[in-house]
TrEMBL record:
Compartmental location: Membrane
Pfam families (alphabetical): LemA
Listed name of the protein: LemA protein
Main location: membrane
Keywords: Membrane, Transmembrane, Transmembrane helix
Length: 189
């Protein structure tokens, strides 16, 4: 009886020594994955805010530059593409397309000095610039969270736990090809 009890205790200790690190690693991966999901939701929120501001911005510009229909169509199409994005890569591509269309719209604005003096236009511009800055920060936060998560899931012994429980690699938020340079926007001229 005494020898059997020692074996049972030894088995329980061995199981605990194996289970505790697995549970800790699993919980750590869950926390990091939730951080990635939260960062992605933050990007979604700010992209939606920008999308909500764009119609007012376009309508204000249309009031002064109604003949510029092509650029208004490009902005609308890019905005719809962003709204229909199904994953982070599609979202990044659509975001780059919308940013490109907005930068072309801002070039059009340069031809209308009276528009730049419009208070509604200036207010919308400030809101859009602030939103663009928040989006840039959110992208960086997302990429930091993804890097931390992917590093944890690839390191030994976390990689064993990650594969056992199906923790998949997360993609970084990458700019689309040709979107390496951020357009310079200056309304002070």
């Amino acid at each position: 009886m005494k020898g059997g009890m020692k074996v049972l205790i030894a088995i329980i200790v061995i199981i605990a020594l194996i289970a505790i690190p697995i549970v800790g690693t699993y919980n750590s991966l869950v926390s990091l994955e939730l951080k990635v999901n939260s960062a992605q939701a933050d990007i979604d929120t700010d992209l939606q805010r920008r999308s909500d501001l764009i119609p007012n911005f376009v309508e204000t510009v249309k009031g002064y530059a109604s003949q510029e229909k092509e650029i208004f169509t490009q902005v609308a199409e890019s905005r719809a593409k962003l709204a229909g994005a199904q994953n982070i890569k599609e979202q990044a591509d659509a975001d780059a397309s919308l940013s490109s269309a907005l930068s072309r719209l801002l070039v059009v604005v340069e031809r209308y000095p009276e528009l730049k003096s419009n208070q509604n236009f200036r207010d919308l511009t400030v809101e859009l610039e602030g939103t663009e800055n928040r989006i840039a920060v959110r992208r960086q936060d997302y990429n930091n969270a993804v890097t931390q998560y992917n590093t944890k899931r690839r390191r030994f012994p976390s990689n064993i736990v990650a594969s056992m429980f199906g923790f998949e690699e997360k993609p970084l938020y990458k700019a689309a090809e040709g979107a390496k340079e951020v357009p310079k926007v200056d309304f002070s001229k």
